[in-house]
Amino acid sequence: MMEAIELxxxxxxxxxxxxxxxxxxxxxxxxxxxxxxxxxxxxxHLNRLGMKYRELELKESLWEETATDDADILLIGYGITxxxxxxxVDLARARGIKAGLLRPMTLYPFPRKPIRQLAERVxxxxxxxxxxxxxVEDVQLAVNGxxxxxxxxxxxxxxxxxxxxxxxxxxxxx
Length: 174
What we know:
Layout (H helix, E strand, L loop, with lengths): L38 H22 L2 E4 L6 E4 L3 H15 L4 E6 L7 H8 L4 E6 L4 H10 L5 E5 L8 H11 L2
Parallel strand pairs: 2-3, 2-4, 4-5
Antiparallel strand pairs: 1-3
């Protein structure tokens, strides 16, 4: 807090909370660890959620590709990094480097299938993020070792330029 507060002179009344878990054996029955307490019901529920996710992945996963038909190196970035990566693809292409871009438009469900298909055609993948590398793990899972995946990231409000990303492309060795 940044500002001073004024506390009441008398303590607030304690309201009974029979639903609370206090850490004592008497309140153990109040602890709910799942929506479904019966393991068989829970397993059935989780299986339905799994099928729902697979259907969402097939029908709702969105992405956009730029210059991927002949790409040797694939950049993957979303949000502002996708615009920067797009400009870096243009810079790389101007230098004769066959770079392409996949921009996930949905992160859930993640576009694993198109990433995997492109990974089979490119020599390397460069994930561009404004974070510590959370999306690179999703990309690595999608690629499953088919091609090397590298991370170029900035954090804390440090926005890379297209030239910075081009330098990362050059070090990946496209």
